[in-house]
Amino acid sequence: MKVSEELIQLSGLNEKQLREELALWLYSKGKLSMGRAAKFCNTNRMEFMELMSKHNVDVNYNVEDLKQDMLTIEKMSL
User: Fold this and answer.
1) What DSSP string describes 10-38?
2) Where are the domains of the chain?
3) Which of 3, 36, 49, 69 could bridge 32 with an S-S bond, Cβ 3.0-4.6 Å?
C-alpha cells in the first residue's frame, strides 16, 4: 500500500512512523491481521509485536481462537 506524500506531511510524522501508527490502529480495530500489519510497516511479526508492546496494543486473540488452537494441537498429537 502506498502512503501519499500529502498524508505524510499532514500527519507531521515521517513515513515509517505514520505506517506504524496506521498499522497499530488498523490491527487494534481488527481491520488487519498481525501479519498484514507487520508487512504494512515493513517489519516482521516479532518486531510488530514489540511495537504493539511499546504502544500498549493488545493481541487480538479470543475464545474462538483458543478453541481453534486447541483443536490443532489435539490433531497434531494423534
Assistant:
1) HHTS-HHHHHHHHHHHHHHTTSS-HHHHH
2) 5-76
3) 36
- Rg (C-alpha) for the chain, rounded Å, is 16
Q: Residue 42 has what DSSP assignment?
A: T
Examine the pLDDT at 78 and tell me if it is beyond 80: no
Distant-in-sequence contacts of 49-54, Cβ < 8 A, 24+ apart: 51/20, 51/24, 52/24, 52/27
Which H helix or E strand runs over 69? helix 63-76
pTM, whole model, 2 decimals?
Answer: 0.78
Q: Is the pLDDT of residue 39 over 90?
A: yes
C-alpha cell at 38: 507487520
Grid cell 508492546 is found at 53
Give residue 66's identity as a one-letter amino acid code: L
Provide the pLDDT confidence category of residue 20 given band limits of 50, 70 and 90.
very high
